[in-house]
Amino acid sequence: MTRGSIQEYREAMRERYLRAGKKDKGRILDEFVNVAGYHRKSVIRLLHRRNQGNPGRRRGRPRRYGCYIVEALKVVWEAILILFPLQTTNVDIKKFQGLPDILSITIV
User: Which residues of 2-14 are buried (b: 16+ CB within 10 A; e: fewer)?
Assistant: First the structure.
């Protein structure tokens, strides 16, 4: 099952689970475990959890790199490139095009 289908299934089963008695809750848990392949305790937590708002939003303080860390990362990155040059025969360069360029990090 995909994550989206498990999410839909959870939403459908949550109301049934919260309204059910003890024996019915056990049956619902058994069914969910068999369908989704989750552990029983994970299913209990999942069914008790409310819908989450925006899961893609990062919480907490934003990341900031000071000038000393940026300089150290540049040195390490350049050393890695010297010690382990990319060999186009073994590695597809197109895979690396989406990665951030560590040498273009701005100093805060």
Answer: eeeebeeebeebb
